[in-house]
Amino acid sequence: MIKIADITNIEERKAIENIIRNYREDSGTVISLLQDIQGHYNYLPAYILQLLSRELKIPLSKIYSVATFYAQFSFNEKGKHIITVCDGTACHVKGGPLLYDYLINQLGIHGGETTPDKIFSIEIVRCLGCCAISPVMIVDDELYGNLNMQKISKILSKIRKEEMIQEGSK
Ligand code: FES
Q1: CA 103 – CA 51 distance, rounded (Å)
Q2: How many Å apart are CA 82 and CA 142, to the nearest integer?
Q3: What b-and-e string marks burial along 114-136, b requiring 16 or more CB atoms within 10 Å of the CB?
């Protein structure tokens, strides 16, 4: 079982130490602990859950029962940018399936999957509650309505460009 000292990435180790310290000092809840972990990794890595269980003396079964209860938590690594596609009736009628085909063609992944470069993940939901501007999708926190292929292409290009700039500045 992994210990904190086994985490060789200094940044990662510091982040985990902070999360553990905050939990101890503020007597946080398991939910807030998991939110912090997911905030750092974008998902809940199994080895970190085991480490937290031992360090904080929380039964692993309790951690998993909380993590599986709330839909916000994921055990699979997600991309940096989450594209939430609506598959509700209004979006479906207004051409959603065609746009979805276009999107999966562009990214090479389907709903529930992440691109190999970990930049994009696609998630599918039933209705985003804004049928009047369907078809819609959310990219990260931003809602896009009245979608068409050109708009999707622009959104993807913008993100790819930003990612290339960030990568180049490292
Ligand atoms: S069906 Fe897509 S927002 Fe309602």
Answers
A1: 38
A2: 10
A3: beeeebbbbeeeeebeebeebbb
What spacing in Å lies between the alpha carbon of 138 and ligand 1's midpoint? 11
| Ligand 1 neighbour 138 (Cβ under 6 A) | no
| Ligand 1 in reach of 56 Cβ (< 6 A) | no
DSSP state of 21: H
Q: 81, 120 in Cβ contact below 8 A?
A: yes
Separation CA 18–CA 37 (nearest Å): 11
Preceding omega of 135 cis (within 30 degrees of 0)? yes
In DSSP terms, 84 is beta-bridged to 123, 138
Question: Tens digits of per-residue pLDDT, 47-89?
Answer: 999 999 999 999 999 999 999 998 788 888 889 999 999 999 9
- Supply 26's token pair: 């503020």
Q: Is 90 in the pocket of ligand 1 (CB under 6 A)?
A: yes
Provide the pLDDT for residue 168: 80
Beta-bridged to residue 144, according to DSSP, are 137
